[in-house]
Recover the amino acids of this structure.
């Protein structure tokens, strides 16, 4: 699954992610076309600002 998004909220004890981070996930989760998803923090990877969305998503395919 290729999906990316922006973090819009985090739990009070989460570290390493903040609202506004661009992330992608590496698990087979249903709902890539949903407007919002709740995804476990350990399943997402931050996307550096110098990497565009097309490149970041293609890297997950191998």
């Amino acid at each position: 699954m290729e999906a990316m998004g922006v973090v819009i909220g985090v739990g009070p004890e989460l570290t390493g992610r903040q609202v506004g981070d661009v992330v992608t996930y590496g698990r087979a989760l249903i709902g890539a076309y949903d407007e919002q998803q709740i995804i476990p923090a350990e399943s997402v990877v931050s996307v550096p600002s110098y990497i565009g969305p097309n490149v970041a998503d293609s890297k997950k395919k191998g």
